[in-house]
Amino acid sequence: MKKILLVITFASFLNILKAQELFVFTEPASNMATKSIGFRLMNMLGVDGSNNKPNFHVMPEVMIGFSNKFMFHAQSFLSDVNGKFVPEGISGYAKYRFLSNDNVHQHFRMAAYGRASYNSALVHQDEIETMGHNSGFEGGIVATQLLNKVAISSSISYEKAIFNNIDPKDAGQKGSAVNYTFSIGKLMLPKEYTSYNQTNINLMFEVLGQNIVGTNKSFFDIAPSIQLIFNSVARLDFGYRTQVSGNMVRTSTTIYLLKLEYNIFNAWGKK
Fold first, then answer.
1. Is the Cα torsion angle 95, 45, 150, 261 positive or negative in sign?
2. Largest CA distance in the chain
3. pTM
């Protein structure tokens, strides 16, 4: 009940205001522009709730929009979790939009997505996370509704950890999980568009959860954030994610995020 009340409270607050579907902690159903290339640098400072030990992750990423239906990301992982800042792994992410119902000032879209990762870091957590922690794969479906300046998105996925370097004390770790997300965002500024050079300011609130298959272990996080878009090509995100409830060991129960992104449109030829 506590989880449901949190979602309803924040969703109601944002809906009263009058988003672009560019979320900070999740991906929407929409894709990048056709023939575009994006460069992203995600920085995350995490804090383990059990011992307040900080850990820093850096994730550079290259993104390619092959068509209005298909896009691909290549990402690498670096961290100082083990006391020394080192590269730990790589990941590939693909998304295919299979449904698009577009109208004036609104649209509904659905997409299937998948991720495959390799990570050499020592696994000592119950949480399964193929974006930066585990080797393995993830597959899921995401649906996004845009209504004027408000975007709402939700996803569900299955995630499997394989070929991991598991800490001996965690040798019994379960290897698969079900993830769910809910995101809502609101375009705050500009009130009226007069130029593509105007700076956009978006406020967002996201919910992220996981249940480990075959156990009673789970977590439930909330993540407010602010996003700035400059000249329609550059993006700066500030986010805060924290655990509301959970009973599993995690590398971080609180995360501070800084994300930088730059996009090149019509990178090869004309649309």
1. negative
2. 60
3. 0.88
